[in-house]
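Good morning,

Attaching, inline, the backbone tokens for the sequence recovery test we're adding to the shared suite. The designed sequence is right after.
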């Protein structure tokens, strides 16, 4: 494997508390040195990164690639290309594939599809219950042995708290983190927007924030009972942040993430009946958005995810409540994070940490840093490069984004996965 040097860039690595200009050297697919070149190192390939930022490759804790089962919406090939163009080098795949990731055979299929797409760093999340039906526990140990890095419920309901308790006990006994999307299905059933003034104005069935906060509170009580390590996925409201903050204050081993679009959009941004804004959890109030940002800045919410969910055109046609929820959001992950930095909501180091070091710690990946000896998963991006979201720049098969036609600032120019350049911007 060729020796490679990334020269002249601003190197930002929160895991090692690095922020300085220099060179990253790669040999044999692994990082050899950071900042200074070792004596005698001769690179076969050089990436000039002056004016750019060099950081660890991003780790996305929640994504759907739509394979197996829904290839009309997206494929491993199309969505991993989108991930590579976004600087994402590790993807955590939610278990609601078809078939569900509830057997070792499906986990092995995921590995095969990843290898065929030449993007091996796709990590399946095992279904908490069989077929995600919320009734019978999955075989978590065999799924862990097959390569699953965590267990989760995706966005599906659990039948009752006893089943959730048993699932958490099982997960804890095998050292598996539970990636839990908090939502009381019955409180939010049939809803498609935040229960509030905007939903009332448009006549849309609402989902109260209580559906999220009650689920958070119940799960926290079961954390105390079972000792299970829980990561709360895609928080959306103020009171959920407060509950997580209180739990962490008293020493509970809980972490949380937020989808990048919930840090920017609220119910007031929803264009009337535009299904591009149909997401779960729904966009909530300006006050909720402010608390999510404060939670991220204060370290209560440690991670940002894309919650990438590509859809075909048909899935987003029809009346708003009848369309399928979710955004195609991998490619807006970096520019929207940089927008938070520009708005002084977080620092650049905090934003990169939320995409690298912190998610790696949640799922126990040896990634998310530029530590010598680790695989060279690296993102190089130009923070000042402007680009439009259109058919020429978009890689994902799903175009279901409310940012279509927008111009963003900040774009990935090179992405390396285990020392291999898997993406290079044509003009870079």
């Amino acid at each position: 494997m060729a020796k490679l040097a990334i020269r002249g860039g601003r190197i930002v690595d929160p895991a090692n508390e690095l922020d300085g200009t220099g060179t990253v050297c790669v040999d044999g697919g692994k990082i050899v040195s950071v900042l200074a070149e070792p004596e005698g190192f001769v690179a076969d390939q050089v990436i000039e990164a002056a004016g750019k930022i060099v950081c660890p490759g991003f780790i996305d804790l929640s994504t759907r690639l739509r394979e197996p089962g829904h290839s009309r919406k997206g494929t491993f090939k199309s969505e991993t290309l989108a991930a590579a163009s976004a600087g994402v080098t590790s993807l955590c795949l939610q278990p609601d594939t078809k078939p569900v990731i509830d057997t070792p055979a499906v986990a092995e299929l995921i590995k095969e599809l990843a290898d065929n797409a030449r993007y091996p760093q796709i990590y399946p999340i095992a279904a908490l219950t069989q077929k995600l039906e919320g009734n019978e526990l999955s075989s978590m140990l065999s799924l862990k042995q097959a390569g699953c890095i965590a267990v989760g419920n995706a966005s599906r309901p659990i039948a009752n708290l006893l089943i959730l308790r048993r699932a958490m006990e099982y997960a804890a006994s095998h050292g598996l983190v539970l990636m839990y999307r908090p939502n009381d299905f019955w409180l939010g059933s049939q809803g498609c927007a935040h229960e509030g003034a905007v939903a009332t104005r448009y006549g849309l069935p609402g989902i109260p924030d209580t559906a999220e906060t009650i689920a958070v509170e119940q799960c926290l009580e079961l954390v105390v009972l079972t000792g299970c390590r829980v990561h709360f996925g895609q928080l959306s409201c103020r009171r959920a942040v407060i509950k997580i903050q209180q739990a962490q204050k008293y020493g509970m081993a809980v972490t949380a993430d937020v989808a990048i679009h919930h840090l920017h959009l609220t119910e007031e941004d929803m264009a009337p009946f535009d299904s591009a804004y149909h997401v779960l959890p729904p966009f909530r109030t300006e006050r909720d958005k402010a608390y999510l940002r404060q939670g991220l800045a204060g370290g209560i919410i440690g991670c940002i995810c894309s919650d990438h969910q590509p859809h075909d055109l048909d899935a987003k046609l029809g009346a708003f409540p009848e369309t399928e929820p979710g955004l195609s959001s991998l490619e807006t992950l970096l520019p929207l994070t940089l927008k938070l930095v520009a708005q002084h909501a977080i620092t650049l180091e905090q934003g990169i940490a939320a995409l690298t070091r912190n998610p790696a710690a949640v799922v126990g990946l040896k990634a998310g840093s530029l530590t010598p000896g680790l695989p060279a998963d690296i993102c190089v991006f130009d923070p000042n490069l402007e680009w439009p979201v259109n058919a020429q720049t978009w890689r994902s098969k799903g175009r279901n984004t409310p940012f279509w036609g927008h111009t963003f600032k900040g774009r990935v120019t090179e992405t390396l996965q285990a020392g291999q350049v898997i993406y290079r911007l044509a003009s870079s």
